[in-house]
Amino acid sequence: MSPRMTLRAITLDCPDPLALAAFYEQATGLEPHPESDAEFAGLTDENGLFIGFQRVDDYQAPGWPDQTVPQQFHLDFAVEDLDRAEARLLELGAGKPDHQPGGARWRVLTDLAGHPFCLVRG
Hints:
It is a single chain. The protein is an alpha/beta fold. It contains 2 helices and 7 strands; from the N terminus they run E-H-E-E-E-E-H-E-E. A 4-stranded mixed sheet has the order 1-4-3-2, covered by helices on one side. Strand 6 (106-110) and strand 7 (116-121) form a beta hairpin.
């Protein structure tokens, strides 16, 4: 039997860890990790989840839906009201690609470093 694995952390490459951490802090309410700095910043929650942001020289933002620079992954966030959540995230600096395949079920946005993420009804 394989050992049980529990996801504890997700780390995103980016050009500015502190700026991206601040975006997701405002978007999610997660707490900044006290040892965050310009090279590696993080957010945590009371359940032990950690989202990290690491600085990468010559970072290239993923393109979506264009795959010239593939997205490689994306995050999904459940929200009660898609329109309200989208409006708030756009105020925080998120982008909204023209291509929106989810219809009324989900929205694709991009964070400050160009990573696509989805808002889903939930």
